[in-house]
Amino acid sequence: MTRVPSSGSGRWRRVEKRAGRSTAREDGRSKPVSRFGLGPHLVTNEQERYDYVYSRNRRQHRHGARRGRLPHRVARFNNGRCKSSSWHGRRAGRKFPSSFKATSLTWTSPHRGWVLGAAKCGTKNCTDVIGTTDSGKAWKLLGAIRAPIPQIGNPGTGVTEIRFATTKFGWSYRPGLYRSSNGGRSWGRRSIPGNGKQILDLAATATTTYAIVSQCAFASGLCGGKPLSLWRTSTSVGRAWTKIPLNLPANNVAEVAVRGKTVYIVDSQRNVNGRRDKFYASTDGGRHFQTRPAPCDRQPDIALVQAVPASAKHVALLCVGNLGSPQPGHSTKYAYRSANTGKTDTYAGTMPSGTFAVQLAASPSGHLAAQAASGGSFIYVNDSQTTWHTSVFFGDGGKGWNDIVYLTDQVGWVVYSPAAFFHGSGKLYSTRDAGRHWRLVTP
């Protein structure tokens, strides 16, 4: 038992340890220690700090405390593994560390968004999720995922992407799989369906989540030509997965995209074995899929790499190929638009050839934007029928982008130099004029 000063009263309190928890008595009256006010004079080590928080959480749950008032433990890494730890000076709802580096973003509306990233956590890195409810004007730390962010191209485990389907239910994946049911405040690890080794891509609506699974470990290539598989589950439950029978040949990348009940699957083959790309569409929530023609197959060495729905019927298609031609770092890139879920399409122009590593975004009215990188980092914009122009160029050696997206016809977001890339700085950029100009956003 220890006597310590009572904050602001000049009186003394008596501190006792009972069954792994701390209580304080002031003038003979027993009460819990003040919220988070656990200085070294009250709790002498990290284990006692954890014991107190754990026992208090149990009491609050037992008495039906509001979820928003429950504290959330953060995670930190030790020798490459993420361990449950004490608060380490970071609490959900507080401003996140200045060392935070973004790697992926997701939005459920123009106002509500989440960003996955890494930040210093003592001598290690934590994988954090931050969020905004006011269109990116203010951001706060929501929670942490007990998994590292692996470097693209290096074998490893963890997560590199984040997707939310509603304000409550979200996923973090590639190569692993984690799920949140409380808006990102806490995350639980989930088994990869079909005993797979990694999630290549994932997309979700408020009712259904779709995932493309590979039997090859992260950054291990095609590993013997094992085919991919497509799965779906309830977004609100997220446990039992149902396999969807589709012919998806081996690949180390694949795309799934969803808008309402319309689902698109892209498994590029031109750049793998020279055969025709696999392009499927479902208009009944993934119950039945039909083959769609891949417009890129009209040219040799050009592959369909992405389908981006702009509405239930409108979809933009991205074709990329001839990598390293006419010179290293160059490629052929062009787009198509379809107004009938990909049954037919219209040519939407060719982008400059001096880049590769492309990702496409489509606005509700059909504006297109593409992120690209090579010797530098570029954003191309098409706000007409077939004409593309360069709206951003950084001569940075090719730090690249991730998750470019339109939220409205005018508003868009992208991650610059993602933390999952080597030496990534993890910055956020936003546009308010349909992609013509982009500005750095400091959360």
Fourth-tier CATH superfamily name of the largest domain: YVTN repeat-like/Quinoprotein amine dehydrogenase
Structural class: mainly beta
The structural domain count equals 2
What is the mean pLDDT?
A: 83
Question: Keywords, please?
Answer:
443 residues; mainly beta; Methylamine Dehydrogenase, Chain H; four-stranded antiparallel beta sheet; 1 helix; 4% helix; disordered N terminus
Give a brief outline of the structure.
This protein has 1 helix and 34 strands.
Question: Can you describe this structure?
Answer:
The chain has 443 residues and is mainly beta. Helix content is 4%, strand content 42%. The chain has one helix and 34 strands.
List the helices and strands and how they pair.
Layout: E1 2-5, E2 12-18, E3 21-26, E4 29-32, H1 46-62, E5 75-78, E6 81-84, E7 101-107, E8 113-121, E9 124-132, E10 140-145, E11 161-164, E12 170-173, E13 177-180, E14 188-189, E15 198-204, E16 208-214, E17 229-234, E18 242-244, E19 255-259, E20 262-267, E21 278-282, E22 290-291, E23 302-309, E24 315-321, E25 332-338, E26 346-350, E27 356-362, E28 368-373, E29 377-382, E30 389-394, E31 401-406, E32 412-416, E33 427-431, E34 439-441
Antiparallel strand pairs: 1-2, 2-3, 3-4, 5-6, 7-8, 8-9, 9-10, 11-12, 12-13, 13-14, 15-16, 16-17, 17-18, 19-20, 20-21, 21-22, 23-24, 24-25, 25-26, 27-28, 28-29, 29-30, 31-32, 32-33, 33-34
